[in-house]
Amino acid sequence: MMRSDEFYSAFEKDFKSWAEATDSIRAAFVVGSRARPDHPADEWADLDIILYADNSDFYLHNIDWLKKLGNIWTTFAYRTSAGEPERLTLFEGGFQVDIVFHTSDSLRQLAKDRSTPENFRRGVRVLVDKDNVSSLIVPSEFKPAASPAIDERSFAQVVSMFFFGALYIAKQILRDELWAAKARENDLRMLMLQMMEWHAKALHGSDYDVWHGGRFLHEWIDQKTLEELKSTFSLYEKADSLRGLLASVGLFRRISVETADKLQLKYPADTDRYITDWIRENTRGIG
Question: Are 104 and 55 in contact, with CB atoms under 8 Å apart?
């Protein structure tokens, strides 16, 4: 079986040859773990490419060109978390290639503004650069972008949304609607992640690197929070779902209060008390 480094090396070579021979393709860059020096790709990492073309929408939806680059198991158009159009493809062997499509006009605007795309900041490699713009948009050093300061309004919003969601989940548990409860747990986890990032920055400073999307969480989170986090995951079962919910509320409360204390923010204690009391009073008979 082909090793991942062999596949991706061959794919990059073939992709580059195709792009260079196709006039409407103006530039292509590798980003993500296969381009960054910090936490580089392991054997399971996929390949992320940013493509700039005169008719980018055509290449997003017409896959005849892609079929020439390998035996496709499955492929579909999607959007990144930032809303950018992309195509996700699994090639034979389980090798994944994600290609984001942008217009040539957007590339020219980046070059004119000497603006660096966010996904270039941790690392980028140039595959194709027909208009010699890479020197204008590739950063001179790779480091994470500065994160905005944690303000009172954003902090209160996350706390309010968390407890709002917690009460909703409690109601679904009471109704034996476990699927609905489990689905909403994912929303709570994203709010928990935001607070864990803020908590880490409150402890270590605003420049502390918390990556994104929970990546390498075990490296940047404190040990106490990591241990408590384990108990927030629960089974598809009524009593255990409630146990996990209460564990989530307890962890979220602790790190939120500590963050507020460190950053001199106001913690919405009344919201916490009203909703926590409601959950405890209405779920006493469970478990």
Answer: no
